[in-house]
Amino acid sequence: MDNMITRRRFVGLSAAAGATILAGGKILGSTSAPGTATNPVFKIGGDLEVNRLGFGAMRLTGEGVWGWPPDRANALKVLKRAVELGVNLIDTADAYGPETDELLIAEALHPYPKGLVIATKGGSTRPGPGQWVPNGHPEYLKQAVEKSLKRLRLERIDLYQLHRIDPKVPVEESLGALKEMQSAGKIRHVGLSEVSTAEIERARKVLPIVSTQNRYNVEDRKWEKVIDYCEKENLGFLPWFPVGGGRGVKSAALDAVAKAHNASVYQVALAWLLQRSPVMLPIPGTSNIQHLEDNVAAAKLKLTPEESKALAG
Which CATH superfamily, name and number, covers 11-32+39-312? Predict the structure, then answer.
């Protein structure tokens, strides 16, 4: 079979897979044995089955992750197109905008398709554009959950993540508040963001943790040990900046592999992540529909062991 995969074929495969997911079926290749990085789905918390390539909605806000996007209609189209392509994991946060990102998601997608998981976060405040200040006080977090529920038009949030551990508040107190909201039926599962293995273990003494969201990509592998821990414990790992954020990802190895597959370096970077670990749930974000289609198509790109090794350096 020809090893060259065109963008048109990528998008066609992804669109077909998306239709199958939304119909309640399995996507191409889902017969792979659990516990292998070729499995295209993952069950967050053991019961929320998602397509492993999700969508990060942060970039749909205004400049500096502040305010409404310059083209609100386009932002709504991107969200709708993501679901059409089979994305059923959308990551957001109350700090994105702030608030506007969650409102956009509800405006575009509510009533939500069956099986769509919206993961949001709380615990990071926004004094101004480009500014981020953690707030892990229990009362603040409980209010944050209530407000996210209202903006997203949900009765329960499937995955609520502590955006950052507040160094001024014992994490047991912050997570205790989320445990209360979970017991009240307002949160299904709890995740963490930008944490070490020691912090995950400390958190798990308070309540069950199902996922971790740390910065990670082919060129930024600070959290390798956290991924290994998540894989061992079957916790989802959501890498943010999976293709390097605004700086992108660049290397001779990426260029070579991309050329061999007639793909973009971003598609290769995402494919590498998906093959790095079966618990990896990349959430690339974009405000451009073509980029979205290219990103989703990366789920169909299969790298050889030699290519993966070359990319890992």
Answer: NADP-dependent oxidoreductase domain (3.20.20.100)
Quickly tell me which residue has 């953690």 as its tokens: 134
127-140 pLDDT, tens digit per residue, is 999 999 999 999 99
- What CA–CA distance (Å, rounded) separates 293 from 313? 28
Separation CA 58–CA 119 (nearest Å)? 12
The pTM of this model reads 0.88
pLDDT band (50, 70, 90) for residue 38:
confident
Tokens 């615990």, residue located: 123
Residue 102 pLDDT > 50, yes or no?
A: yes
Closest of 103, 110, 113 to residue 83, by C-alpha: 113
Which runs of E-coded beta strand occur in the chain?
A: 41-44, 48-51, 55-56, 89-91, 117-122, 124-125, 133-134, 157-162, 187-193, 211-213, 236-237
pLDDT at 10 over 80: no
96 is catalytic: yes
Q: Which of 96, 160, 216, 229 is catalytic?
A: 96
Segment 69-84 shows an average pLDDT of: 98
CB atoms within 10 A of CB 270: 29
Kindly tell me the burial class for residue 155, based on how many C-beta atoms sit within 10 Å of its own C-beta (0-12, 13-18, 19 or more): exposed
Burial 157-174 (b: 16+ CB within 10 A, else e): bbbbbbbbbbeebebeeb
Domain boundaries, the chain: 11-32+39-312
Residue with tokens 């669109």: 15
